[in-house]
Design goal:
Length: 337
Amino acid sequence: IISLPAAQVSSHGFLNGASRASLKAFQPAFLTSANFRPSAATASSPTELVTEFSALANCFCVPQPIARSEALTRRRLRITASRGIEAMRRAYRDRAEYLGDPDFVKMPIKRLISSYYAAGLRSNILADRATPSSDLAPVTISKPESMHTTHISIMDKQGNEVSATFTVNFRFGSGFVPPGTGVVLNDEMDDFVSKPGVPNGYGLVGNDANAIAPHKRPLSSMTPTFLQTGNGQAVLGTPGGSRIISMVLLGTLDYFNGGDAGSIVSIPRYHMQYLPDVVFYEPGAFTADEIGGLKNMGYHLREIHPYGNMQAITWDYKTGKVTAASDPRDIGKAEVR
Ligand code: GLY
């Protein structure tokens, strides 16, 4: 197999400027063995796949008795169907794991096409049984980006604070950017009650108090928060639509119970917003006994994925200790300088 280094080809198959220059210095890579002869390969990213596949398959070659006169035209790779399938399965799994536009992704090509790596992959192929794809190491899935927008909490040496929650409401807001501004307009109209009793995107209901009217602002759940006691102060907040209010409530209660920033942003959450008449809760928010007890009391419980992205800072006046934390459920960073 001649392998054109994928770095020279964009994902669309076009050569970029740097690639054109480096192409002059291009040296084809050869994978050869007694059973498999070099041949021209396509100049696209599947090259690595084909090479990896052949490195794998190579070792399953069953030499065919071929008449000398036919050798040049008939010489080809012979492997059993099941071994070919298993080699493909493993190479395609690696395609999913590692390959992408080389302008963006660093690919472990050397390793993938090495015979040592192929030997490792072959070691769990069974001669008499298919390998379920689910038995291979699952492809790494990066944490999906959450639906949430952003909250920042800031406190300076004097105790001045900023608590700012941003929203465009749902994904990409209204989907409209006024030309030349770079600003995505929100779709906050959904925060109004468009019709009494009809739930909005968060399942919230309301009446005329939050009906649409000229110059009126829609009701928001955003709750950027400052807390002060005689002993200290805290700043916190989170994105999260209708659940912001209950998240901030739980964080606030935790602060008053002695929690530091790490605890405030981490404690498991539960949420009830009148309608729907359901208690949503994160794994670990209730003990098994509590769940049983609540069900017996007539609550409708629904466990849901962790949610929210709280940012919190606390300052204890007596000890001088400052703690800052970013919600472990989502992206973010906290720092005390
Ligand atoms: N856009 C969600 C809220 O402000 O509550």
